Amino acid sequence: MTPATLLDDRKQALRLKRFLMASSTYVLGLTILSLSTWLGLLPLRGLAILAAAFVSVNLALLGMFRSGLNLRFADPSLTALQICVAALLVCLILLVGDQLHFLAGPFYSVLFVFGMLQLRPRELIWVEGFVLVTYCAAMGLRIALFEGRLDLRVEAVNAIVVVGSSVWYALAAGYISNLRERLRESMRTIAQLAIRDALTGTWNRRHLDALLESELQRCARLGQTLCICLADIDHFKAVNDLHGHLAGDTVLKNVAACLRPQLRGIDELGRFGGEEFMVLLPGIALAQAQACAERLRRSVAELAAPQGTDACVTISIGVAEFAPGEPATSLMERADQALYRAKSAGRNRVVAYALNGAVAV
C-alpha cells in the first residue's frame, strides 16, 4: 500500500467518523420525537414514519462511505448533502405532526452549526437557501393539511425564528470561514517551519532523517538502490571569521540555490547541519551518484564570490551507497568517512565509499 493510499484511507476513516458523529444527532432527534409521542403531541404512526426515514437515510449514507461512493463527489465528506437531506427530514416532521412546530428552530440550528463548521460561506448560503425554500414549501403544505388546527400566530413566530437564525448563521459563517482559512494558513506555515531550514529553504536535519528512513524502508521492500551525498562547504569558518556571519549566510543560501537545479525531481536536498548538506539519490548506483556529486561540485565552484568579499566557494562531497540491511547510521557514517577523505585530500573534490570498502576519488 502506497503512502498516498494510506493517507486516503486515513481521510476516509475521518470522514466516516464525522458521519457517525453526525448520526448521533438523529438518535437525539428520535428520542425527542419519542417523548413527543409519549406526551401525545405526535401520533404513533407518525413516529414510525419518521423513524423509518431516519434509519433509511443513515443506512444509505453509511453505505456510501463504506463503499467509497462518496469519493465520486466534489466534497467526499458529503456535508452539504447531509444537511439538505436532514432539512427535508425536518420538513417531514412538520408535516406528520401538527403540534411539532417548536422543533423546527432547534433542529435547523443544529444543521446550521454543522454546516458553519464545515462549509465555505458560498456553499453555506446555497444550503441555507435550500433549507429556506423547503421550509417555506413545508409550511404551505402544513397550513393546507392542518387547516383550522394551527395557531397561525405561533406558526408565524416560528417562521421568523427559522428565517432570522438562518440569516444570522450565514453572516457568522463568513467570519468563521475566514478564521478557518487563517488557521489553515498558520498551520501550513508551522508545518513548513517544522521541516524546512529557515535560512536555505531546504529540508532540515529532522526531516532529512525521516526521509532517509523512509527511503531505506522502500529500498529494503523493493530491492532498489539508494546513494547519499554529504557535501561540506570548504573553509566556511574562514568566511565567517573574515567577512562576517551575513556573508556566511549568503554563501549557504547561494550553495543551496546552486545545488537544487542540478538534481532530479525525486532527489532530496537538505541542510544536514552547519555548513553541511545531504543529498538523497534514490534508484541509482554508486558510479552514477559519484557523477552527480561531481556535477554538484563543479556547479558550486563556478559560483561568484558574495558581494563585497573575495571568498572562493567550493565544496567537498562524500558519497556512499546503501548496502541491503544496512541501518541509516552506518550509511551516514560511511558517507561521512568519504567526506573526511575528500577534505583530507585537499578539498574541492568528490570521494565515493564503495560497498566493499574501496574508496574512489
Structure described in brief:
With 361 residues, the chain is α+β, with helices and mostly antiparallel strands.
Word description of this protein:
With 361 residues, the protein is of the alpha+beta class. It has two domains: 3-194, no CATH class; 205-360, 2-Layer Sandwich (Alpha-Beta Plaits), CATH 3.30.70.270. It is built from eleven helices and six strands. The protein has helices at residues 3-38, 44-67, 79-96, 104-116, 121-145, 152-195, 205-222, 236-243, 245-259, 286-301, 328-344, and strands spanning 226-233, 268-273, 276-282, 315-321, 350-353, 359-360. Strands 2-3-1-4-5-6 form a six-stranded mixed β-sheet, with helices on both faces. Strand 2 (268-273) and strand 3 (276-282) form a beta hairpin. Residues 1-7 have low confidence and may be disordered.
